[in-house]
Amino acid sequence: MKEELKIIILEDVQYDVELIEYELRREGIKFISKQVEIEEDFINGLDIFRPDVILADHSLPKFDGVSALEIAKKIAPEVPFIFVSGKIGDEFAVDMLKKGATDYVFKNNLTKLVPAILRALTERDELTELKKSKIELQIALQEKEMLLKEIHHRVKNNLIMISNLLELQSHYIKDKTDFNFFRESQNRANSMALIHERFYQSSDLKSIDFGDYICTLATDLVNTYVNASGQIKLITDVENIMLDIDTAIPLGLILNELLTNSLKYAFPVTYSCEPSDGTSASHATFSCRFEDLTSISSSSTVQESANKNSMITVVFHKISDKFELIVKDNGIGFPKDLDYKKTGTLGLELINRITKQIDGIIELDTSEGTEFKITFKELEI
């Protein structure tokens, strides 16, 4: 409590003012008081005098305590407001407490005045500390959010830089297999960069809309692999489900590998080549994948695809307490003699390992094309 309190006394009877001040001095309270009787003086007192406590009578000839309480709650809501009256009833007192009064004391029992003031000031100080702590906590949370945003932003930029370096390096690769390794690594970096981008753009920084992420990543991959042919139709049937980073990143990598496998292997095409000098009319027919089309010379012509209605479908739903991610295509189908759980290919090895990491289950259906279904629960931290 301050060494000297500033107290506004809303009272029109001078004798009652003197009794209040006597009781304060008797209890050892050091104070400066300002007596007011009308609304204008009361408002000026709040603005200029800036009291620590307001003591108000219930009724005055030209003003009243109820109106004073309403004004005080607007101008100085943190200042304790105590009714000191001889005409206040219990029902009225309760109603005033509901409207924001701190306490009430009867004039015929002023011995309770100082305890009421001290209690009110203690509660005010505690509330002030609580508000201060809340403000400090909000500032700390904002700083933490800014830091997390910055971390996600920097990680995303670093992954994009890695992707760009892989792309630059791939220009010097002559072997097709090595070139594809570089491009696949580039796509993996891009898939993770996209997740970090979504996180620093998210309002809560805890989760991202994975349905939206699926649509963006799938579209980007299709454009990367088949922009030369444009013959694959992408279908997405996804829910707008929020996933945290510990689930989103591994699931994003799984999605990247499943889509890449479909784009690379599901839809072989045939093309014909003419000599670059145009001297021969004969055609040689070859078989290739959509991914090969970008390397075919300008004199080559795509004749047909194995399936003119080539489609890749991505499904993502929550069923009960589990999530289902399905990537399926209507291509040539998964090789019958290949065990996807024991294959030596990096893509399928990543799918198996990461699915175990999120405690998921893989199911493969080859009855119509190839369908991989990943079932999992969101990881509990």
UniProtKB/TrEMBL annotation:
Keywords: Phosphoprotein
Pfam families the record matches: HATPase_c, HisKA_2, Response_reg
UniProt cross-references to PANTHER family, sorted A to Z: SENSOR HISTIDINE KINASE, SENSOR HISTIDINE KINASE PDTAS
Highest taxon above the source species: Archaea
Modified residues (4-aspartylphosphate): 57
Domain Response regulatory: 6-122
Record-given protein name: Response regulator
